[in-house]
Amino acid sequence: MDLSKQYNAFARKFSDIHDIGENSNSDNRKVFYSLVDFVTSGMELLDLGCGDGLDLAHYQSMGAIIHGLDASEEFVKIAQEKLPGADIRIGLFEKTPFDDTSFDVILSKYAIQTSPDLNPIFHEVHRLLKPSGMFMFLVTHPLRQYLEKKDIQDDYFKQKIVDSHILNNAITIKEPSHTFNEYLGVEFLNNFDVLFYKEFFDNSAEQIEGRHYPGYFILKARKR
User: Fold this and answer.
1) How far is CA 38 from the centre of its chain?
2) What is the value of pTM for the model shown?
3) What domains, with CATH codes, occur in the chain?
4) 195-200 mean pLDDT
5) Is a pLDDT exceeding 80 seen at residue 184?
6) Which of 12, 38, 159, 209 has a CA between 20 and 30 Å from the CA of residue 63?
């Protein structure tokens, strides 16, 4: 199932509500921004899954030279409206339209987990980063995806497309489930040095059976 274009159907609605209210992405955005402590003025920065450009605008305010990539034509259109003249392109994370060693920093928030195979993305990020470049991403927690399968017979290790209800159940997105091994496998660890990892609760996500568990994790790494 090709999930790369799913946001086209609700890009405008998502853009209108995703940073407003207590059940929005505003909390996880603040956490993510607080950890982007390595961006300095003049750095070439790529946002993978840039969405409507809200995060790009923040990185631009930090002095970064911003570049954005998203598979959704509608998101790219909104982002270009917000940031006229910025380099924001349509494309897939596994095969981007950028040259080798183009970026000092690559960031991604709630995006790369929508791809069924993560290793091609990690290889592409490694290709795009300059020596010792920084990569930080926020993704749906594998435990949350397992619970979102909503069947006690489901196998954690078997990939399944799950429905994830977000933003106070206003929007439903489909994501392939992943395991921690897929994020921290040999391929990743051979190419990056992990500098930071932490799990977080996400009040914008559905809480299955009222349980309290991590909704996402953030990982910060340096290109080896």
Assistant:
1) 18
2) 0.95
3) 6-223 (3.40.50.150)
4) 98
5) yes
6) 12
